[in-house]
Amino acid sequence: MPRAALSTGIELEYETFGDPSDPTLLLVCGYTSQMSGWDAALCERLAAQHLHVVRFDNRDVGLSSKLEGSAQPMKVLTAMMAGEPVPDVPYTLSHMAADGIGLLDHLGVERAHIAGVSMGGMIVQTMAIEHPGRVASLTSIMSSTGAPRVGAPTPEAREALLAAPPSEREAYIDASTRGAVWASKKYVDLDAIRQRAAADFDRMFHPQGATRQLAAIYASGDRSDALRMLDVPTLVIHGRDDTLITPGGGEATAELIPGSKLLVLADMGHDLPRPLWPVFAEAIGGHIRTSTSTSSTTASTLTPGSAGA
C-alpha cells in the first residue's frame, strides 16, 4: 500500500477505493484502530456512492509512523476536569487532524468530505474547526464533544477500554472479546471480533501508541464552543446501544453544530456491524450528495505534493 510522507516527518499508510475523479471521502479511524476499522468491503460500498474513498492508519498505530515520549492520560484527564494546567503530551488531536490534511495535500485534494468514528470523530471535528476551507462536509460517528462528562462510558466499558492488551498472540485474540461490552447487541459476533484481532495483531502490534493517543484525546479538551461556530454540512450518527461513548455524546454534538442532522440507530453500539453497512453507506452518501447539491462552491484539486502538511 502507498505511504504519504508529510512535511512534518510523519508517514501515513493509506489505501484508496473508487474513481479519483469522484469527490474524496477521507475516513478517520478511532482509538488504537488500524485502517481495517473501516472494513474494505464497507469502503467499497461507500465508493459505490460515486466517492473516492481514502482510509489510513493514524499516527502511532498500524503501519504509519510511531512516535516517542511518555504520556499519562489519567493525570491529563484529572487535571483537565479540575481546571488545572494539563501536563505536556507528545501530541494532541490538532496534530492528528493536521496529519489528515497533510494526506489530502499528498493526494492533491483541495476539499474533502470527512468522516470519523469515535476518536476519529473527534479528529474530523478538529479538522473542520481548524481547517474549515479544506472540509466539504463532516460526518461524526459514535463520537463526542470533548466535554469530559458528555457521553461518558459505562464503568464496564471503561474498564474494558483501559485494560492492557496481552502481548502474546493467542491471549491478545482471546482478550479482544472484551470489546463485546460495547458492541451492537443485536449483531455482536465474537468470531468476527477474534478474526479482526488476529489480522490486526499480525499486521502490527504496537500497544505503546495507546497511551499517547488517549492522552491526546484528554489534552485536547472541550470543543463545544468551537463546534457552535462551525459552518459545514454535518451528519452525526450514533447508536443507542453504545456503552463506550454513550448516546449523549452524539446528541450533544448535533445540538452544538448549527444545522446538523442526527441519525440515531436503535441496534448500533460502538462498532460498525456488517448488517448496518447499507445504512451507513446510504446515509453518508446521501449526506454528501445533499451537501454537494446545496453548495455554491465546487471542490478543486491541487497538484499532488504542492502543499505542505
What does this structure look like?
With 309 residues, the chain is of the alpha/beta class. The protein has one domain (3-152, 210-294): Alpha/Beta hydrolase fold, catalytic domain (Rossmann fold). It is built from eleven helices and eight strands. The chain has an eight-stranded mixed sheet, sandwiched between helices. Helix 4 links the parallel strand 5 (112-117) and strand 6 (135-141). The longest helix has 18 residues, at 277-294. The chain is globular and about 45 Å long. The two termini are 20 Å apart. Mean pLDDT is 93; it is low at 296-309.
Short descriptors:
309 residues, alpha/beta, 8 strands, disordered C terminus
| CATH architecture name | 3-Layer(aba) Sandwich
**How do the strands of the widest beta sheet line up side by side?**
1-2-4-3-5-6-7-8
The Cα radius of gyration reads: 18 Å
What percentage of amino acids are in beta strands?
5-15%
* SS summary, helix count: 11
**In this structure, how is the largest beta sheet organized?**
8 strands, mixed
Range of helix content: 25-40%
Shape: globular
CATH top level label: Alpha Beta
Number of strands: 8
Write the CATH fold name.
Rossmann fold
> Termini, distance in Å?
20 Å
What is the CATH H-level superfamily? Alpha/Beta hydrolase fold, catalytic domain
The ordered H/E elements are EEEHEHHEHEHHHHHEHEH
pLDDT < 50 stretches:
296-309
